[in-house]
Amino acid sequence: MNYGKLIAAIAMTTGLTGQAMAQDIFDRSESEFFVGGGYGQYSVKWDDEETEFDEKSEVVKIFGGIKLNEYLGAEVAYLNFDEANDFDTNAEIDGFTFAGILSAPIHERASVYVKGGWFTWNAEVKADLPVLGGVSEDMDGGDWFYGAGVKVGLLENLDLRLEYERFEIEDDIEPKLDVASASLQFAF
């Protein structure tokens, strides 16, 4: 048996298969732009204390992005969190996310996805101190975030997204924000 020819045949087959897979993943004919908005609730964990999801802890989100193909995409979003409380400290946080999205189709009209990226945030922190009274400070920063979700097609260009995201703000206010949200996404 000629092992050189066998290795060359395997390499050629693997190379063609790898090239076909790469071409399928980066096929621009399936690319589309999308916009959307959603509503959710969040819980806050300050060090060892945690607040529960409730109707007073709301977040509104507006987003847009590009789906390169059925596997890869990118998204920019604006999030506005209602006031988060920790007894004598309150924080109002909003910001922008910049994320990459990796999707896996599970049905013709449904897919699961993971996403991750950077959260650029602004916060106004207010504290009621016994001696000084109310003190306020504006803060800003950036931190990594990640999430996962499911997207279900409702109409040809309209999808419902259900997702969970985790934001870990590593500044003096140090909360971990867990967000559960539902959004509508329109593709064009």
From TrEMBL:
UniProt signal peptide: none
Residue span(s) of domain Outer membrane protein beta-barrel: 9-186
Any Pfam family: OMP_b-brl
Keywords linked to the UniProt accession: Signal
Annotated InterPro entries: Beta-barrel_OMP (IPR027385), OMP/PagP_B-barrel (IPR011250)
This protein's name: Porin family protein
Organism, scientific name: Microbulbifer echini
Lineage of source species: Bacteria, Pseudomonadati, Pseudomonadota, Gammaproteobacteria, Cellvibrionales
